[in-house]
Amino acid sequence: MTKEVEFKSEHWKKFIPYRKKASRWMIKSKYLIGKTKREIKELFGKEDNLYDLDEWAYLTHKNLLGGKTFLLIQFQGEYVENQRLYTVYQLGDEAILTI
User: Fold this and answer.
1) d(CA 85, CA 99)
2) pTM of model > 0.90
3) Domain layout of the chain by residue ranges
């Protein structure tokens, strides 16, 4: 039996370490699928997203090698269509994306 995780918006907004576990749970459970852009803004707060775009990214954690992992939320119109994690490593002036 899998343990159900209760998503806590206030933890997401205040505690970066919470984001790693929460984002994995959200992807596995498809928690965000079908939510509106407004609901996502309320859940995650304001970050560096351009809200008229159809892809928003939220930092979930940084690893020991300097990589930053993001939760990528993709919208179809106003609704979440897809969600996934991706990691970016900075190498000099170039960003290297790993999926």
Assistant:
1) 7
2) no
3) 9-98
